[in-house]
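quick one if you have a minute, typing this from the bus. below you get a single protein, a line of residues and a line of whole numbers that encode the local backbone shape. could you go over both lines and see whether the tokens make sense for that sequence. anything you notice is useful, everything is just below.
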Amino acid sequence: MKKRKKLSWRKTRKIKKSNSPELTFVFPAFLLPKERVIFKTHPHWLLLAAPETALGFLEILFLRYLPGLLPREIPFIGWFLFLIVAGFSFAMTIIFLDWIFTTYYLTNFRLIKEKGIIGKRIMSLWLDKVQDVTCKFGILGRIFGFGDIEIESAGTYGKIVFGFLPSPRKLQEKIEKAILDFQWYHSKEKSLIGFDYR
């Protein structure tokens, strides 16, 4: 009888590893199969810094001058000042969360705008439906490096605006390149019978 050749521990480990299914984690959750993120960005930091600085300055003014203007006989003045501080802090927190939860994506299939702190609103536009990509910025945009990108679509698909984007011209170039790559990819896959990228 022929003796069975024992596999080494390393070879056995390789076989088990190759037979085990691979786990693929897709993030964000709304991505489709074969879809990958080319870039992901939030609005420019100035959209967060400007209102946060203004609110912080107003809060300091209130705390500095309001106690001197109010009569000392008013009861619970300490609680009144506490409520003012809490209100300003709450407003600053909401502004920060709104900024951090506003996200723009460019994938190899779509343009996606995600917005919302608790309830999410996700708008997407397929790259083959894009007709025009326009970059707009004013004087402050030239100085600080931010602007808007308007993506016009065909038919009734509407328009998506990526507002207060950092480095809008570079992102516009990436979008235009992704559209060309998508058209080439779609024309190549279209030759396969029964393939549908959607």
User: Anything to note?
Assistant: The CA atoms of residues 42 and 178 lie 19 Å apart.
